[in-house]
Amino acid sequence: MSDQDVEILAIGAGPSNLALAVALEEMAPGLARKSLVIERDEEVSWQRGMLLPEALSQVSFLKDLVTLRNPRSRFSFLNYLHATGRLNDFVNMGSFVPYRLELAAYLRWTAEQLKLVGVARGKECVAIDPVLRDGVLTGWATRTADGDTIRSRYLVVGAGRDPRIPEPLLGVAQERVIHSTQYLQRIAELRKDLPYRVTVIGAGQSAGELFTSVQSELPECRPTLVMRSIGLNTYETSKFTNELFFPSFVDEFHAAMPEARARILAQMHHTNYAGLAPGTMDSLYRQVYLDRLSGRSRLRMITMHDLTAARDEGDEIVLELTDWRSGTVQELRTDLVLLGTGFAPQMPRMVRRIADAVGVDEVAVTRDYRLVLDRPATAACYLQGVNEATHGIADSLLSVLAPRANDILQDILTHRAAHLTEVQAPLAAA
To answer: Which segments cross the bilayer (predicted)?
Structure first.
């Protein structure tokens, strides 16, 4: 076990905190040398469970970690392609959206290119405690699973939201339930020659991808797609609507009244949720069409049904599905449940624990993503990717990575300058 003092500790080496690390290296090298990113996995990745061979990103490559802040940066996606000898191939493909595998490789490459900001892999955060002196918050003490303690003045949480698990499935054998975040790792552990009955829950992009992928990953399986909606829909992709994903819209959204924000989010729901990319939709429909044409009847879809109960029965799970048109209940027996249900809208458990520890009843952040505290403080905590309600629907996506990193860094620099005397004091003494 060992202790370590840093000025900035960023939890999670995903796109959000890597964008911040890049901003630190380019704009505040002195502070970068006192900064650390910790990642619980042994390697830096992104959407590890859904790195399917043909899955495309839904966001332009220009919305990478840095380009919208600094188009000349050596950390850009284009420079990654150039450095790895793949720029001509990507240009020739003629697409603004890279494959998901490419973006994951770009993130790994970026982490390796960092020279000043430390990146510690295999470091899982298990607890975060506020450091108080005479009632003033002066820092944070983060404990990791290997017994280390990392003390920091600034904490940046970018670990993502918690997976959404439908309540009826919380009480069944979890070895037969796989959320999309764990799909590839866990599906690889299963035998390929068994005729699994597979149920996919959801009506969005991840559910569509799971339904398609499992047909090849488990060649003998018979998948059923279950959804509450009347059918599958494509994302709303109007270029006019997409302007609401511009970084400049964050200011406009943040300044709106709370009821107006809620109304905007409701109207933008189908730009990011409960929909499929047009290419995925077309491919999926062709699969169903050919299945019907062949007479095999391997693929099945159940629409307009709620999952109302679930139980274990021997080696299978019995799902209770209620038709919300008639109230009729049917049972669906299955060997494996795949969840394309996305992420819980509530603040992640890690954020709620931090808030509880400092006595914050309701989590709120400033325009610059700083957690609002109800006590004097010379330290601060920043939240990335969980502020949709106050910063707009793009907050959980790649669209605002670079500008948001700039906002957070500028706020940290301003905050440090305002507390210069305290900043110079040894953190360990706080």
So the answer is: none
Q: Which helix (H) or strand (E) element contains residue 28?
A: none
223 by DSSP, 3-state: which?
Answer: strand
Asked if 398 and 376 touch (Cβ cutoff 8 Å), the reply is: no
How many helices (H) and strands (E) in the chain?
15, 15
Write the DSSP assignment of 241-281 as a string of letters.
Answer: HHGGGSTTHHHHHHHS-HHHHHHHHHHTGGGTSS-B-HHHH
Neighbouring CB atoms inside 10 A of 345's CB total 13
Q: What is the reported pTM?
A: 0.93
Cα-Cα-Cα-Cα torsion 209, 215, 217, 222, nearest 10 degrees, comes to 120
Domain 167-235+272-339 falls under CATH 3.30.470.30: no
Q: How far apart are the first and last CA of the chain?
A: 21
Q: From first to last of its 430 residues, what are the pLDDT tens digits of the chain? A: 578 999 999 999 999 999 999 999 999 999 999 999 999 999 998 888 999 998 999 899 999 999 999 999 999 999 999 999 999 999 999 999 999 999 999 999 999 999 999 999 999 999 999 999 999 999 999 999 999 999 999 999 998 899 999 999 999 999 999 999 999 999 999 999 999 999 999 999 999 999 999 999 999 999 999 999 999 999 988 899 989 899 999 999 999 999 999 999 999 988 888 899 999 999 999 999 999 999 989 999 999 999 999 999 999 999 999 999 999 999 999 999 999 999 998 999 999 999 999 999 999 999 999 999 989 999 999 999 999 999 999 999 999 999 999 999 999 999 999 987 654 544 443 3
Contacts of 158 by beta carbon, 8 Å cutoff, 6+ apart: 10, 11, 12, 14, 16, 17, 20, 384, 385
Whole-angstrom distance, CA of residue 85 vs CA of residue 71: 20
Closest by CA to 359, choosing from 345, 340, 372, 342, is 372
Domain borders along the chain are: 3-162+344-429, 167-235+272-339
Q: Whose CA is closest to 29, among 96, 103, 115, 89? A: 115
Q: Any idea what the Cα angle at residue 373 is, between residues 368 and 376, rounded to 5°? A: 115
Provide φ and ψ at 208, rounded to 5°: -60, -40
